[in-house]
TrEMBL record:
Its EC number is 3.2.2.31. Residues 41-192 form the HhH-GPD domain. It comes from [Eubacterium] hominis. This is Adenine DNA glycosylase. One of its GO terms (molecular function) is adenine/guanine mispair binding. Adenine glycosylase active on G-A mispairs. MutY also corrects error-prone DNA synthesis past GO lesions which are due to the oxidatively damaged form of guanine: 7,8-dihydro-8-oxoguanine (8-oxo-dGTP). The gene is mutY.
Length: 347
């Protein structure tokens, strides 16, 4: 098989990108801050889901100073529904670091970006190349998938050593004159053409003439991922307690899963829930539908109910308006928040 002509590969890739790149709000005005916000939001989240969050976040916190001074509750509310809340918590830490060390600006070099909280090798590469035009690769899942197929590399892409291997290989390919377009083009190919799981659209891929995987018929076998650990299943019992027009909320611990977010009363065992309910002066109980939420390493299988009480109890009782405007409820509780809203409309 002929050796891949990397120069021609890059030219074909960039020509495709120039003709097919999606219009995205962070691309229209690629300032360092906007690039940073978008890249963090896009981690483990689809582009279409990110768009409204990005616009709302930038409107509320237009620069690094605003982000550095934002309250944790404000940040959680702006991030509500995006998940992986440690991302926005680290962004605030990084913004404070920028205020203290870089005169309120994002640093322009890969190594300096890497020194900020929440910015790893991929994010540093993306920001350095897109915002500052540094010839640095940004190796994410899309990039690993595309070039595993192009070069037929069968290393386990979940290993850190594999990511470093690709980073080194891509340093030899990335064009110094257009590193921003190159990295975005590979991401775009991975998102739109060289897709995971389902059959990739090789017949419309600009890299097909260069792709060893396509030419040898092994594209569907790549990339290689070692078997992930099976997610654990946890049962949860959710009580949405309502007193008059107020809802009882609990704040989760500052560390761990969904750290610092607000939730409805949640129990691991039915006996715990029964004990809690026995302390209330209950007017009526309305069952809500069962729900499931998938985290990275676990699943919550939930059953829930609305619990209307006659007597006020101690705790954080909030209005529906405050719930909507100020309190970030994790998307794990979406079905129960929606059930609550529907019932409150008719009260």
């Amino acid at each position: 098989m002929e050796k891949i002509n990397n120069k021609q590969l890059v030219e074909d890739l960039l020509a495709w990108y120039d003709a097919n790149a999606r219009i995205l709000p962070w691309r229209e005005e690629a300032t360092p801050y906007r690039v940073w916000v978008s890249e963090i939001m896009l981690q483990q989240t689809r582009v279409e889901a990110v768009k409204p969050y990005f616009e709302r976040f930038i409107h509320a916190l237009p620069d690094i100073s605003a982000l550095a001074h934002a309250s944790e509750d404000t940040l959680r509310k702006l991030w509500e529904g995006l998940g992986y809340y440690h991302r926005v918590s680290n962004m605030k830490k990084a913004a404070i670091q920028c205020m203290e060390r870089f005169n309120g600006q994002l640093p322009s070099t890969y190594d300096e970006l890497l020194s900020l909280s929440g910015i790893g090798a991929y994010s540093a590469g993306a920001i350095a190349s897109i915002a500052f035009h540094q010839p640095v690769p940004a190796v994410d899942g899309n990039v690993l998938r595309v070039f595993s197929r192009v070069w037929v590399i069968e290393d386990d892409i979940l290993k850190e050593s594999t990511k470093k291997k690709f980073q080194k290989l891509l340093m030899e390919v990335i064009p110094k004159e257009r590193p921003d377009a190159f990295n975005q083009a590979v991401m775009e190919i991975g998102a739109m053409v060289c897709v995971p799981n389902a059959a990739p659209k090789c017949h419309i891929c600009p890299l097909a003439p260069h792709c060893k995987g396509y030419q040898t018929g092994v594209t569907h076998k790549l990339p290689v991922k070692a078997g992930k650990k099976k997610r654990t299943i946890e049962k949860k019992y959710i009580d949405v307690v309502v007193y008059e027009d107020k809802i009882l909320l609990q704040q989760r611990e500052k560390d761990g899963l969904l750290a610092g977010l607000y939730e409805f009363n949640t129990f691991d065992y039915p006996q715990e829930e029964e004990l809690f309910l026995s302390t209330l002066d209950i007017e009526k109980i309305v069952p809500l539908k069962d729900s499931k939420h998938i985290f990275t390493h676990k699943e919550w299988h939930m059953s829930g109910k609305l619990v209307f009480i006659r007597k006020k109890i101690k705790g954080n009782l909030v209005s529906m308006q405050d719930l909507e405007e100020h309190y970030a409820i994790p998307s794990a509780y979406k079905a129960y928040k929606e059930g609550l809203i529907e019932w409150m409309k008719h009260m």
